[in-house]
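hiii so um. not sure if this is the right channel but i have a protein structure encoded as tokens and i wanna go backwards to a sequence. like what aa goes where. can anyone help
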């Protein structure tokens, strides 16, 4: 670890099985929990100037080439309208027109 972002030797690596049923969101959430655990373990030691006792074995490391992910999909206009109708961003609300007047649809909790 150095003063530069994501630089220096790897301090510790935790490995865990990845289940086929996990979504990308599951993987992010679980990885964040492991990262938090490592942060709580190493931050106080590093702030005291203590370094890892054992150097990491290079044979133990695994690196993967950075690949461009092309996961775009094409949606029909009907599908796009359907998704917009079911999705509500916190800053944007569905709107309806009734009786010539336009109304913003909000949940009872927001009004």
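sure thing!! here u go:
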């Amino acid at each position: 670890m150095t003063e530069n972002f994501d630089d220096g030797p790897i301090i510790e690596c935790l490995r865990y099985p990845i289940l086929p049923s996990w979504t990308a969101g599951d993987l992010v959430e679980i990885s964040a929990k492991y990262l938090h655990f490592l942060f709580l373990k190493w931050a106080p030691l590093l702030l005291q100037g203590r370094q890892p006792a054992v150097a990491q074995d290079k044979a133990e490391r695994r690196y993967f080439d950075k690949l461009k992910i092309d996961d775009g999909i094409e949606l029909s206009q009907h599908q796009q309208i359907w998704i917009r109708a079911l999705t509500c961003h916190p800053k944007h609300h569905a709107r309806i027109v009734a009786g010539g007047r336009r109304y913003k649809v909000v949940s009872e909790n927001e009004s």
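oh and The radius of gyration is 24 Å.
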